[in-house]
Specification:
The chain is α+β, with helices and mostly antiparallel strands and about 280 residues long. It has five helices and 17 strands. It is globular, with a radius of gyration of 21 Å.
Length: about 280
């Protein structure tokens, strides 16, 4: 279920995902305060491919980059997240990729399994779906097949490796103004922060560092699209190898997870390469 959500919300972070006994992106959302959606779990929520696809696209308005490939597995006897969710996932992700729901390839990788591929016939098709006859929610995980789909079974990169941004001891000089959008989602003892830096100046920033101070009690546990040091207090979020260029008018995003001791508030101020940013 989480794989569907992560691929929908963060298409700029993930290249592919493998979902075992999941539901479509947006299916499990509730509006009544409940953490369990019985209609979705029981396979009672059906939508057109376009409607499912729009849910994903609306999660990141304006995103025009590549979409993650999806591999989904489901048992026909799933008693927790009923089997119709398998077909709804196929409808959703084929639509997200602009594909027909007619498989490009169908085979039986093992007895009782039916595998369909959409938009391609190889091990890394845009969408791959494996139906497991007679299998319950506690389905066996074929790790090798998932690893192969994710492209992790080879030492040769499947795409060109980005040229690293040169780094050194000197921080690049401030170049124009900036704006930061900081969105936080918190729970009892943790939070996830999404940060967007927009260069509102005209000159390109070649290598960026965003400085900000976390409220007391917050400690970063992991991050993506940036290297954050230290873990608490006054932090520096530095670009990684593939996103160091910030052209005039452009935006770069990064995020992190953190623990907190009761205060999940946002930082009060941000500075990009020493220049104070406005906060959206």
């Amino acid at each position: 279920m989480t794989t569907n959500v992560l691929l929908g919300v963060y298409p700029d972070v993930f290249t592919a995902g493998s979902a075992f006994a999941g539901v479509p992106f947006g299916c499990f959302a509730t509006t009544n305060g409940s953490e369990w959606n019985s209609d979705c779990a029981n396979g009672l929520i059906t939508k057109t491919p376009q409607q499912w696809g729009d849910l994903v696209r609306n999660a990141y308005p304006g995103y025009t980059g590549p979409r993650p490939r999806m591999q989904t597995w489901h048992g026909t006897n799933d008693e927790t997240l009923k089997y119709p969710n398998f077909g709804e996932q196929i409808k959703q992700w084929t639509n997200v990729h602009g594909l027909s729901q007619t498989p490009s390839y169908t085979d039986t990788p093992r007895s009782g399994y039916t595998r369909t591929r959409y938009g391609g016939t190889g091990d890394q098709a845009p969408v791959e779906a494996i139906s497991m006859s007679g299998v319950s929610h506690n389905l066996p995980v074929d790790a090798a097949a998932a690893i192969r789909f994710l492209g992790l079974d080879t030492t040769t990169p499947t795409t060109a490796t980005p040229t690293p941004t040169p780094t050194g001891t000197a921080t690049p000089a401030p170049t124009g103004a900036c704006r930061v959008t900081y969105t936080v989602s918190s729970w009892s003892a943790g939070l996830t922060a999404s940060v967007a830096i927009t260069n509102t100046g005209t000159a390109t920033v070649d290598g960026w560092t965003l400085a900000f101070t976390l409220p007391s009690g917050q400690t970063v546990t992991n991050s993506w699209n940036a290297t954050i040091t230290p873990a608490s207090g006054a932090l520096s979020a530095r670009n990684v190898s593939y996103n160091g260029t910030l052209a005039g008018g452009a935006t770069q995003t990064f995020g992190f997870q953190a623990t907190h001791t009761g205060d999940a508030a946002k930082p009060a101020a941000f500075a990009l390469n020493g220049t104070t940013c406005s906060v959206a």
